[in-house]
Design brief:
With about 260 residues, the protein is an alpha/beta fold. It has a single domain, classed as Purple Acid Phosphatase, chain A, domain 2. It is built from 5 helices and 13 strands.
Length: about 260
């Protein structure tokens, strides 16, 4: 079983990059199951119905979200689609689901989405406690558990790796848009990377226009972010799992310019 995880789509150019390259990547890497973080797809913040419709035409099994889940209000018209999940530790009573179960090559797969609490400014429950609850439940129902931990702090992501080591099959971080070089297989067989990176404008500040971003750091004025233009990159990671044990046996980054 080979699982492809693609880093945050940033803007319509990032979406186009994914549309152009995904079929080639799936064929080249012999991918069975694909997860993509889509919380920055539409205008750099949120996911609208037009872009979701475009994504549905691609060979993607699950879309995860993050702190910009509600960035586009029309998401409420499709948030219950089985293909999309939002952070499971959002406040109770919100629409959508925090995990979903899928089937692929005779295996039952659960994908969980969680959001970190360090420097995220999002009202959420403790992700470690919610992870505990979900993993305990899902481990009795599925063969493979995948976690997208959408968090700012590398320490929080790494702590989650140790906390769930051997209890889930794959953990990847999203949100910071910079691909980390720490992909590994833990001692108990969990595939891990701190951040997948992004699929968006290369000459940018994590996908945003350089001049606008610098102005925000130079002054205290609330300069409006805008998407960068130009060439795009695609970042992600491939996790190969043993068909018998479902433990990760290989993990490697991918990056396309």
């Amino acid at each position: 079983m080979k699982i492809l995880a693609i880093g945050d789509i940033v803007g319509e150019n990032g979406l186009k990059k994914l549309r152009d390259l995904l079929p080639t990547i799936i064929e080249k890497e012999n991918i069975d199951f694909t997860v993509v973080n889509a919380e920055n797809t539409s205008g750099g913040m949120g996911l609208n119905e037009r872009d979701f419709t475009s994504i549905q035409k691609m060979k993607i099994n699950c879309l995860t979200m993050g702190n910009h889940t509600w960035g586009k209000k029309d998401i409420f018209s499709f948030i219950d689609n089985e293909k999309i999940i939002r952070p499971a530790n959002y406040s109770k009573g919100l629409p959508g689901r925090g995990y979903n179960k899928y089937e692929c090559k005779g295996k039952k797969i659960a994908v969980i989405n969680l959001i970190g609490r360090t420097d995220m400014n999002i009202l959420s429950e403790n992700p470690f406690l919610v992870a505990d609850e979900l993993v305990n439940k899902l481990s009795k129902e599925v063969d493979i558990i995948i976690l997208d931990f959408h968090a700012e702090a590398t320490a929080e992501k790494i702590a989650m790796k140790h906390y769930l080591d051997g209890r889930v099959n794959v953990i990847f971080g999203t949100h910071t848009h910079v691909q980390t070089a720490d992909e590994e297989i833990t001692s108990k067989g969990t595939g891990y990377i701190t951040d997948l990176g992004m699929t968006g404008p290369k000459n940018s500040v994590i996908g945003m226009d350089v001049s606008a971003s610098i102005k925000r750091f130079l002054t205290s004025l609330p300069e409006r972010y805008k998407l960068a233009e130009g060439d795009t990159i695609l970042n992600g990671c491939v996790f190969e799992l043993d068909d018998d044990t479902c433990k990760t046996i290989n993990v490697y980054r991918i990056s396309y310019k």
